[in-house]
Amino acid sequence: MHVLVVGGGGREHALVWKLSQSPAVEKIFCAPGNAGIASLAECVPIKPEEIEKLREFARENGIDLTIVGPEAPLAAGITDLFQDEGLLSFGPCREGARLEGSKVWAKQFMQEHGIPTARFETFQEQEEAYRFLERASYPLVVKADGLAAGKGVIVATDFQEAAQAVRSMMEERAFGTAGESIVIEEFLQGEEVSVFALTDGETFYPLVPVQDHKAIYEGDRGPNTGGMGAYSPAPVLTEELAAEVSRKVFEPLLRGLKKEGIVYRGVIFGGLMITPDRGIKVLEFNVRFGDPEAQVLLPRLRSDLFPLLYETARGNLAAAAPPEWSSQTAVCVVLASQGYPGDYEKGKEIRGLEKAQELENATVFHAGTAFKDNRTVTAGGRVLGLTAWGASLKESLEKAYQMAQIIEFDGKYYRRDIGHRALRRSDNE
Ligand code: AMP
Ligand code: GLY
């Protein structure tokens, strides 16, 4: 089989890495890929948003399956476009991608179909939003409706902060048209966990849960990033809770999609809050694998990834055996460029990659890297995902942090407390 992976970050490197182990996969292309992906796949200089060019490429190169990493091409309808030509694309159609592409739509969908979520109001008019904020209790959360690269969510502790968030989204258009509508919702306390399921709209196979660290600074402080590290399993999600997630989230979601006539074929990713007193609540849905969640999910997958994705895209998931998982703990520590998620410099030479790769049960997934004059250099905010797996969280973390010391580049920044909640939990046991 010939496969095209769309995207060029750590998630896509992990997908390419796992697919390269499949006996069914003969050749992998990746658009646009990165310096790490280039050792496993042929990189093609097409951006994920250039969905028509991707279709051309898939047609001309006899691609059997295209696997879409990021959300933007899905929201733009890449799967619909491919389907029109009889090409197979893993990831939901445009309508299904609204679960991530429009927070207003997703919240209304959850309400309508009985999926537990934070209480909320939606607004199209600023004045109405301010009036609501005047009588609201705090903290609360203000969210831009559309895609905002993970930055469109602001937790406000008082009226001033909330009003500023509304102004920046609706008046100053900090996130462009994504802020035309907003959601204001209650602030939930608890521990977050990422849950995933593959589904073809009929069958769903839950994947193992993951916890990520979104904040830039240790102690989960500071602005949110795409994710500074992750680990799986996530001990907060007990088997009992996982069963509850299937019953209260995935099953009603599938019923709801069907009822609305939406054929959803891909992965669904729920960002959940496990509240101490009100059970599980869905904070958001994403319509793709998480990044860096995929980097810890895929090393734990013992099954061949290809048939799972292929049968999902074909609408025949039941034909693939349910995924099997290793009981090991996988962790990913992200090395970022100093300044991220704000401004940062690029083009810094990365040293020590080969030495770090010598460790067993560990691998380096590239995120923002490129080749320049025969050297691997930084090319993004998140640069590398140092991933390790082993019998315990502690053991895996030690290995990932060993790699973090071996690898050097100017402005290297990483959090030294990945997995702190789970470590505390196991210390208390
Ligand atoms: P979202 O993109 O909706 O997942 O929001 C990004 C992050 O904001 C989440 O991972 C949470 O850390 C935080 N967040 C979002 N909604 C809420 C909420 N209702 N209560 C508390 N924190 C939230
Ligand atoms: N790590 C969170 C995300 O991929 O959205």
Report on the structure:
It contains 14 helices and 23 strands. The chain has 4 domains: 2-93, Rossmann fold, CATH 3.40.50; 125-180, Dna Ligase, domain 1 (2-Layer Sandwich), CATH 3.30.1490.20; 191-319, 2-Layer Sandwich (D-amino Acid Aminotransferase, Chain A, domain 1), CATH 3.30.470.20; 329-428, Phosphoribosylglycinamide synthetase, C-terminal domain (Glycinamide Ribonucleotide Synthetase, Chain A, domain 4), CATH 3.90.600.10. Helices cover 32% and strands 27% of the residues. The longest helix has 21 residues, at 239-259. The mean pLDDT is 95. It starts with a strand and ends with a helix. The chain has helices spanning 10-19, 51-60, 71-75, 78-84, 94-101, 103-112, 126-134, 159-171, 239-259, 293-300, 305-314, 353-356, 393-406, 420-428; strands at 2-7, 27-32, 42-43, 65-68, 89-90, 120-123, 140-144, 153-156, 182-186, 191-199, 204-206, 211-212, 215-217, 221-224, 229-232, 266-275, 279-286, 329-337, 362-366, 369-372, 375-378, 382-390, 412-413. It has 429 residues and is an alpha+beta fold. Glycine is lined by residues 150, 212, 226-227, 286, 290-291, 293. Glycine binds at residues 150, 212, 226-227, 286, 290-291, 293.
Helices and strands in order, then pairings?
Layout: E1 2-7, H1 10-19, E2 27-32, E3 42-43, H2 51-60, E4 65-68, H3 71-75, H4 78-84, E5 89-90, H5 94-101, H6 103-112, E6 120-123, H7 126-134, E7 140-144, E8 153-156, H8 159-171, E9 182-186, E10 191-199, E11 204-206, E12 211-212, E13 215-217, E14 221-224, E15 229-232, H9 239-259, E16 266-275, E17 279-286, H10 293-300, H11 305-314, E18 329-337, H12 353-356, E19 362-366, E20 369-372, E21 375-378, E22 382-390, H13 393-406, E23 412-413, H14 420-428
Parallel strand pairs: 1-2, 1-4, 2-3, 4-5
Antiparallel strand pairs: 6-9, 7-8, 7-9, 10-11, 10-16, 12-15, 13-14, 15-18, 16-17, 18-22, 18-23, 19-22, 20-21
The structure holds adenosine monophosphate (AMP) and glycine (GLY).
Adenosine monophosphate binds next to β7, β8 and β17.
